[in-house]
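Hi everyone, sorry if this is the wrong subforum. Our group has a chain we'd like a structural model of before ordering constructs, and none of us has done structure prediction before. Sequence below.
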Amino acid sequence: MTIIVKWAVALISGFVFISLAIAADPKPEATIRNANIEANVYLDDKIKADSALAADCLGEGKKWIEKNAAAAAADRKQEPELFKDRGGYSFERKYSERSVVDGRYVSVLRDDYMDTHGAHPNSDVNTILWDTTAKKRISIRPFFTETTDNGPTLTAMRKAIVSALNAEKKRRGAGETATAEWYKELKPTLLKIGAVTLAPSTVSGKSSGLTFHYPPYAEGQYVIFVPWETLKPYLTAEGAKIFAGARPKGDTDEQQ
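Answer:
Right subforum, don't worry. Here is the predicted structure as tokens:
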């Protein structure tokens, strides 16, 4: 093959690669773009396939970018020099399906990216548990006999989380942040225990336990797994119905 032919093949391959990359680039479901801000909301295909869930996520996402657009406009008015060289703020929210359990309970990850011209961009993670039968968001409350603040269920849950967090921090060599101060906001209440999802299982249609998702720190995001057996004494009949099996190895690799 001559040099010219090789060059032509490489050039064509490059164009094909670029075209595929552009084609694969997802389009936002909602966007705001002006001199103050570029903000986008994305839904993955699995979420878009459920019209009720998609509408719920998109409605929330639109409110989020509208709120940030208003804040960006106010900041620009107050500090125009902040935007002069760096342009507008950047916000991005992505909703993605984590698991579907019992054909009914959908766990959704909500990942946020925010650049407001600070020292560095910020990111956050939260979760949604969606009941496709009731077509609404729910908590993990139906799966446990009691979920009172500082009660036995959430106390046991927090203990398991802290133990797993310490082990994961040690594995990452993150000893400097593995302190009591790091856990001060992690409390045995549904609102303070952490953003939770139902983990997938080696048994089809079941959940292997709970995964708790914590925002990125210097050493990255933490996804902490609590196996269902740890919480077995506190399960309701519905909880006993949906939990079984073990966490798939692939899920461990993907999430942590």
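For your construct planning: Confidence is low (pLDDT under 50) at residues 3-13, 15-23. The beta strands are 30-33, 37-43, 89-101, 105-115, 122-131, 136-138, 195-199, 209-217, 220-227.
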